[in-house]
Amino acid sequence: MNKPTIVFERHQKILDFLKDRTSISVTELSEMLDVSEGTIRNDLQALDAKGQLHRVRGGAVAPTQFAAHGNPIRAKAQINAEQKQWIAQWASGQIDSGDVILLDASTTVLYIAQFLVDRTNLTVVTNGLEVARILAANPTNTVILVGNILQPDGNTIVGTADQAMLQALKIRTGFVSSVGFSIEMGLLERDPQEAQLKQQVISACQKKIALIDSSKVGKGALTPFATLNDIDHVVTDVNMAADTIEAIRKTATHVTICSEQSVATYASYESNGGHRIGFANISEKMPFGRDVRRGLELAVQETTNLELIVADNQLNPDIALTVADNLVDQQIDLLIEYQIDENVGNLIANKVNALGIPIISVDIPMVGATFFGVDNYKVGLVAGQVLGEVVATEWGNHFDFLVVLEHPRAGNLPAMRIQGQIDGFQQIVGQIPRQQIIRLDSGNTSQVSEREMISMMQQIGTEKRFAIICFNDDAAIGAVDAARQLACEDNVLIVGQGGDRRLRIELQNPATRLVGSTAFRPESYGEKLLELAQKILAGESVPPAVYMEHVFINPDNVEQYYPGDVKS
Q1: What is the full DSSP assignment across 124-145?
Q2: End-to-end distance of the chain based on CA atoms, in angstroms?
Q3: Is residue 338 in some structural domain?
Q4: How far apart are CA 538 and CA 528, in angstroms?
Q5: Are residues 402 and 420 in the same domain?
Q6: CATH number of residue 220's parent domain
Q7: Are residues 247 and 150 part of one domain?
């Protein structure tokens, strides 16, 4: 596609794209228009200010998607819209590619769909036609409608759900809202038929999350469909009354309170004299980061004296500096900092330490912080050795290039992860001439890695054999996608780092060219991080670095270590 030469022309192309689809991601636009993602974000912000589209996390949606135009569900979506979007944004962070989820027909849940533009292979059970239309636009998703009677609003389906089908789907998480809410009665609907269907479908969910903005409290309705005892987690906004929040916590239900910039998660029991922990996450767009954040939230829910405030660094060093300042302003007692730029990390550590606030750095070291993560050289060494063994077995040690998908701005310690892979690979295949090693910047995303790999292989020749080591699993997935796009999969062998969920699903593909990944087990980070934080807050002595255990996963053992993953 030709690059637009002026801003106006580029803006028109963006709007043209949105005429044919309900949403589009920043990465897709960056690739189609051949400009940086930063430029696209500025374009979307400008178009949003003009009302020509709606800017959402990771992309944009067409301006008519939630406009009323006589449609009752879209008109209802405008009521308390800002608070609903805060809640929906948090809820979308609980959903990963490959998940099986329930979404009801409520307007709050409708907003979740706009935040799922970067997820694929979802199985979505819903009784809402608008939700179904939005998510079915992605051909990798499977959307299943429940009920058999369409309500006059043209969106909501009611009737009887097929319980056998629901149980067979093994729905991981159900997201529901309601017309009204009270501590005594729980979640309520005006329509008894809709209440009955909701009661049926949420009973089939492993985890039930209620999305209740503050406007719902005290609203009368006819029929309750779930009490607080039926709900695992209530998500609301900062305008919810404090006494209502405390009453919910006393029912053994966890609470998350959302605002525009951050969210706070409370355990289910009121306590006094607790601590407030801030977590600045690397990016809610990265599955690894979402796993770490979810683990922390779950760990906090098992305590009685902690509050967790979460913010998103968005892979942006400038945003990371602002996030740190905002968390400090909220009077945190400890900061857990997870962001990619080593230099900015040191600035944050210096500023926060000067205020007497202890810091834990995740995966990327910071001067003055307790390091938490993996032993980068060791995890790399294991992966490099395995890649070398597969290259020796499958290709008889005959390959043309070793490709290194790295990320220089992460600093020296993560660079040891790359060096470990190179050393481990050479231990098996022998010393590699420098001219056979190609280094590419992964950008810490699968999209950048895919683009860099495609460009390199087209230039060198797709008939060459490439052994590929990666900074993380995002880079590995990008390499897989590049080889598929160029139809040269037989000429690549790839090893990842991290073991995130997308990669684990890919390992279950019989034709995959991924030999495996050193799994850092991000789903376990939260529990270990909280243990470390509590020791620091209690004044106990801790080592300068705390390492996570790791395991190498491959197509033969991935189901043994992760039996719950969904195959795509």
Answers
A1: EEESBHHHHHHHHTSTT-EEEE
A2: 30
A3: yes
A4: 16
A5: yes
A6: 3.40.50.1360
A7: yes
Type and span of the H or E element at 502: helix 501-507
442 is a domain residue: yes
Q: What is the pLDDT of residue 339?
A: 87
Give yes or no: residues 330 and 370 share one domain: yes
**Residue 544: which residues within 8 A CB-CB, separation 6 or more?**
370, 371
- The average pLDDT across 520-531 equals 91
How crowded is residue 191: how many other Cβ atoms within 10 Å of its Cβ? 17
pLDDT above 50: residue 14: yes
Range of the domain at 25: 7-61
122 and 245 within one domain: yes
| Residue 413 included in any domain | yes
Residue with tokens 């767009």: 285
Residues in the chain: 568
Q: How do strand 205-211 and strand 186-189 relate by DSSP bridges?
A: unpaired
* Helix axis angle, 81-92 to 107-114, nearest 10°: 60
pTM as predicted = 0.69
Residue with tokens 């060219």: 513
Spatial neighbors of 513 by CB under 8 A, at least 6 apart, are 480, 483, 489, 490, 492, 493, 494
Q: Write down the pLDDT at residue 72.
A: 56
Identify the pLDDT of residue 61. 73
Indicate the burial class of 458 (C-beta count within 10 angstroms; 0-12, 13-18, 19 or more). exposed
Q: Three-class SS of residue 517?
A: strand
* Token pair listed for 432: 């590699």
Do residues 128 and 231 both lie within one domain?
Answer: yes
Residue 478 half-sphere exposure toward CB, CA atoms < 13 A: 31
Mean pLDDT of 222-239: 91
**Domains in the chain, number:** 4
Which residue from 13, 34, 7, 5 is spatially nearest to 455, judged by alpha carbons? 34
State residue 236's pLDDT score.
94
Q: Would residue 40 count as lying in a domain?
A: yes
- Give Cβ neighbours of residue 459 (< 8 Å, ≥ 6 apart): none
37: CATH: 1.10.10.10
pLDDT at 341 over 50: yes
Q: What is the mean pLDDT of the chain?
A: 87
Encoded tokens for 474: 């995002």
